[in-house]
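Help needed: design a sequence for this.
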């Protein structure tokens, strides 16, 4: 398990490109036949990828969790960013077409990822986001576009996008996780601009559907001391509570955003006016 210890904003000015990427960029999560995870000590989030590649793939328990099974003390949100697949949780089979989001509650013991038997659009690729949980909420599935939709931005500022909230206060219930997907409209490149911070939650973005020859320039850091990460398809960024998070693509793209921390209030954000960015 890839471990990322927590970082103070005072350290940021001293990091070079390699150190920034080591701390905040998570690469190589989607490896055929593997469940790959990274553990950030910011709000003790585990993010990962599971790619069945033609054979059932169980969710292992990682030694670092010191738990009997992965979800013994945790909950998990899963978004399928690949072809149709299934997640079998304690014997119940959930079918996730591309873009579907499944919540698994604390105490779910056996989890197995697989490609859908009739999947014809390439194999399933499951993005995993897990946080500590104090109680067990029921597992629940929501299909792409069936969450709470918000239309954001404007074509004139190249940031027109559709945001879908799946796991949130008025949707699938969870202890900590708030999760959804944002899709940029063709011709729009900016996400989350104007940017924001939320000192009460850590947030991770998984960028996907980024064309192979394109990149997303992801901004992070304190508003008056920003840095950037150049991000490729299916790579994730960890944004500590003190960091803004915004990106501009060289082509349109989508991303899974997911948070955990002190509250689940999506609109509890401190907006950062563009004019104060440095
Ligand atoms: O398109 C956006 O704007 C987002 O998706 C923003 C994220 O949802 C976010 O940062 C929530 O705190
Ligand atoms: Zn945010």
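Sure. Designed sequence:
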């Amino acid at each position: 398990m890839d471990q990322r210890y927590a970082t103070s904003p005072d350290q940021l000015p001293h990091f070079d490109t390699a150190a920034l990427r080591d701390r905040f960029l998570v690469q190589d999560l989607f490896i055929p036949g593997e469940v790959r995870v990274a553990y950030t000590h910011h709000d003790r989030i585990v993010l990962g990828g599971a790619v069945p590649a033609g054979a059932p793939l169980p969710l292992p328990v990682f030694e670092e969790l010191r738990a009997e099974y992965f979800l013994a003390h945790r909950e998990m949100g899963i978004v399928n960013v690949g072809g149709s697949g299934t997640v079998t949780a304690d014997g119940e089979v959930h079918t996730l077409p591309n873009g579907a989001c499944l919540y698994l509650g604390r105490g779910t013991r056996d989890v197995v990822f697989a490609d859908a038997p009739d999947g014809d659009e390439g194999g399933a690729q499951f993005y995993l986001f897990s946080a500590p949980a104090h109680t067990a909420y029921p597992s629940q599935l929501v299909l792409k576009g069936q969450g709470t939709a918000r239309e954001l931005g404007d074509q004139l500022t190249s940031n027109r996008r559709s945001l879908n909230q799946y796991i949130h206060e008025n949707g699938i219930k969870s202890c900590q996780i708030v999760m959804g997907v944002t899709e940029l409209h063709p011709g729009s490149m900016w996400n989350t601009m104007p940017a924001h911070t939320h000192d009460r939650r850590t947030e991770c973005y998984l960028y996907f559907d980024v064309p192979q020859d394109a990149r997303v320039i992801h901004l992070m850091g304190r508003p008056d001391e920003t840095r950037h990460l150049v991000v490729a398809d299916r790579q994730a960024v960890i944004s500590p509570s003190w960091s803004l998070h915004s990106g501009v693509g060289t082509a349109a793209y989508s991303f899974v955003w997911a948070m955990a921390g002190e509250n689940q209030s999506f609109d509890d954000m401190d907006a950062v006016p563009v004019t104060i960015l440095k």
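The chain has one domain: 16-276.
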